[in-house]
Amino acid sequence: MSHPEILARYRRACDYLALAMIYLRDDVLVRRPLRTADLKPRVLGHWGTCPGLNLIHTGLNDVVGRTGRRTLLVTGPGHGAPAIHANLWLEGSHADRDPALARTGDGLAELVRRFSWPGGFPSHLSPEVPGVIHEGGELGYALATAAGAAMDRPDLLVACVVGDGEAETGPTAGSWQTSAFLDPDTDGAVLPILHLNGAKISSPSVYASMSDDELRAYFTGCGWEPVVVDVTGYDDPHDPRADRAMADALEGAYRDTGQRRRGDRLPMIVLRSPKGMGAPDRDAAGAPLAGTFRSHQVPLEAAEPDSMMLLERWLRAYRPEELFDADGNPEPDLLGVPPTGELRLGSVPESVGGALRRPLPLPDLEPYAVDVPAPAAVTASPTGTASRLLAEVMRRTEDRRDFRVVCPDELDSNRLGAVLEATGRAFARDPGVYSEHLTPGGRVVEVLSEHLCQGWLQGYLLTGRHGVFPCYEAFASIVDSMTNQYAKFLTMSRSVPWREPVSSMVYLLTSDGWRQEHNGYSHQGAGFLSNLLTKRPEVTAVHLPADANCMLVVTGDVLAATDTVELVVTGKQDTPVWLSLDEARAHCRAGAGVWEWAGTGTGDPDVVLACAGTTPTIETVAAAGLLRERAPELVVRVGNVLTLRAISDPATAAAGIGAAEFEHCFGAAPTPVVFAFHGYPSAVHELLHGRPDPNRFHVHGYLEEGTTTTPYALLADNRMTRHDLAADALRRVRGPDDPGAAELERERDRLVEHAVREGQDAPEATTVPHLARGAA
What we know:
Layout: H1 4-23, H2 50-67, E1 71-75, H3 81-91, H4 93-97, H5 105-114, H6 142-150, E2 157-163, H7 170-175, E3 189-196, H8 212-221, E4 224-230, H9 240-259, E5 266-272, H10 305-316, H11 332-335, E6 379-380, H12 382-396, E7 403-407, E8 444-446, H13 450-462, E9 466-472, H14 473-476, H15 480-493, E10 505-510, H16 527-532, E11 540-543, H17 548-560, E12 565-569, E13 575-576, H18 581-590, E14 592-594, E15 607-612, H19 614-630, E16 636-641, H20 659-666, E17 673-677, H21 681-687, E18 697-700, H22 711-717, H23 722-734, H24 739-758, H25 763-766
Parallel strand pairs: 1-2, 2-3, 3-5, 4-5, 7-8, 7-9, 9-10, 10-12, 11-12, 15-16, 15-17, 17-18
Antiparallel strand pairs: 6-13, 14-16
Helix pairs in contact: 1-2, 1-3, 1-5, 1-9, 2-3, 2-9, 6-13, 12-17, 17-18, 19-23, 23-24
């Protein structure tokens, strides 16, 4: 072990650099009296967690250097970025990516100036920062992300710092159960380090108020073996005894994780340290600072003369002249503390997962396709069809172990159970009850927490692997905020030269709202889709495959995609198969197209029936059949949208189809378009912005109406039945008083009455016309 005095000295340098990054723009080693011009005009950053992070990082440097064990660091309190930047600069990981950040006086000045500066580093950790796979700005997801990074990496240890404010979040509370899913034979280990410094932004933290015995009891019950490191009793913030205590705890944790067996509790560390350790005791007005919530962000507002004097005294207390030579270069003994090469925490290969990623060995689709002699001649489950493909991918990656399915206990429910024929469910404990498909090393991870699934998959993908997240549609919105953050992470990553593309985040939403008539209102909702459309179009895509063959093609496409968030929403019930495999391939490539066989007449259409989604497509084809019977003189065109942004103006979204294709699919203005849409109608209206005459689109979708009822009655509540669509089309062509439209609506009402009376839909409410090719 490095001598504790050397570790404490290294930590003092990191603390100084972190403080300088928050406050200074010039004279970064305070070689002259501090002036206003030396301060950043906008002082941003978080000091409170930085000293604790530096204590942890320094200890990890020491133990990694001694053991040679590859360690990835996930920092939950990402607002403590100055501490991480300081360590990355001293270990040379910054310089490897950007020579301007060399370990010289000029590089030091550039590092300090660049933090929280326009065009520089953000105030939180971000993809521009080496070693980072977790931004940390939104608290709660660090431990789940760390666990995902450890899965299928048996030689990797993932150290994860969890702040005491973050520990109060629901996702973190759930993440302590991660220990039940990490198998010592196939997975790496996670080492949680719970950093308790007593306070959040302005109030006490719950975990810090617990006694050591309470903490040990709580975490032991969650499957961990906690060791408490308490450094609150030292007058000197850089007392070497703190480094000795941290080194001893890390030594034991590294030993125990390397020797663990199935069923063993994993080690964790609880670090108690004063908040803002090293800050002045009080500010210029006499309010307490060090050890209190007032040191959380910027402890001193240095614009006032008295505060500037305190700040200068605080900076000089670190004695930077002992740490950096006359040219600003760090002293040689400091550079000897971090490990070297790929053992540096900022240079671990897994932190740039795109460089490790291998394309999936995807099979040919033909063996899994449904034979379609004519549209709707056969039925099949879209998810059931895709499930057989996913199972084969599991088989083909058995040796590689770089593909997983994470799911909130809904794999069988969503008809994806074929995957369990190829692998088992991961569970590292004795379940104690009758269970099925629990297999050591299983690569299906099911837990009833969407937050955990999201965090696991983020960590897994960002370290170079592949995966799918199936979920009930209504409950995917639980991770709306996490998805927002991840999409932003991908957006920023694309501008970082040394980041390489990672496998796309694939959501497979099924048990969709239109077929949740049995579970009722709480299970009906398409909000996740709408939320995803608010993110940048180059990093997000929404696919609505209308049948099993389209689903098969889309599944293959999204599994091969990189650097995007891919949302696939489809049904699980047996539904009509409209397209052959070759037709499905062409349709998926186009994103949207005309289904000639579903329409009526030839030439320019009188009205266009458009659709997107499994159930809306069924109702649209049925509506076209009603118009063929009731208004045979009308020319009706049917257009299906598979990739939702295909309807966008290509000037705003690259996936948007060209003007000629758009007119072919939806007719020329002012031809009315009755659009049956899977989600909320507002999503389509927003996507159509920029297209000629978007007001000619009349969108039917989910109107937030629902209950426990029948499939047809649920559609009727939201004006999405075939009768509603056909009636709307007649009124758009013939006028609002068209008697044929009124008759269709009376038929709809009679069918709803039948459902209420009989408890099930009448056959004519669910029958789909059998269509031969070219029936129009």
